[in-house]
Amino acid sequence: MTILLSKYLGKSIIHNQQGVKIGKLDDLVVSKETGKIISYIVKLTDTKNIISKLPKLGKGLIMVPFPFISFTNEKFYIYENEIAKFLEKSKKEQISYKDRI
Q1: DSSP string, 57-99
Q2: Using an 8 Å Cβ cutoff, are 13 and 21 in contact?
Q3: Sign of CA dihedral 69, 57, 55, 45
Q4: What fold is seen in the domain 5-100?
Q5: Residue 6: in which H helix or E strand, if any?
Q6: 3-class SS at 12?
Q7: pTM value?
Q8: Where are the domains of the chain?
Q9: Alpha-carbon span 43 to 33, nearest angstrom
Q10: pLDDT 10s per residue in the chain (101 long)?
């Protein structure tokens, strides 16, 4: 199965695991070498959750690492529990986000 990203850019609502709308897909970061998705760029509409602690790009945009989002049934889902673990581990180990992706 294939999908066109243009169908979802600026339109897709990103949901957390409880189905609450928290943002929109803005763009993707793709590796030049492998062509694989590295991160999703998300425009937050709900800034009161763990997702807002990820690196900010300005204008309400954040980077969400690839493993923390899945696409199912025409919707994107964010794994907030996994992001919380990732952020805690990074903080304890004093490793920056960019070193982890």
Answers
A1: EETTEEEEEGGGEEEETTEEEE-HHHHHHHHHHHHHHT--HHH
A2: yes
A3: negative
A4: SH3 type barrels. (2.30.30)
A5: none
A6: coil
A7: 0.77
A8: 5-100
A9: 26
A10: 677 778 778 777 777 777 788 888 899 999 999 988 899 999 988 777 777 888 888 888 999 988 898 887 778 888 888 888 888 888 777 665 555 55
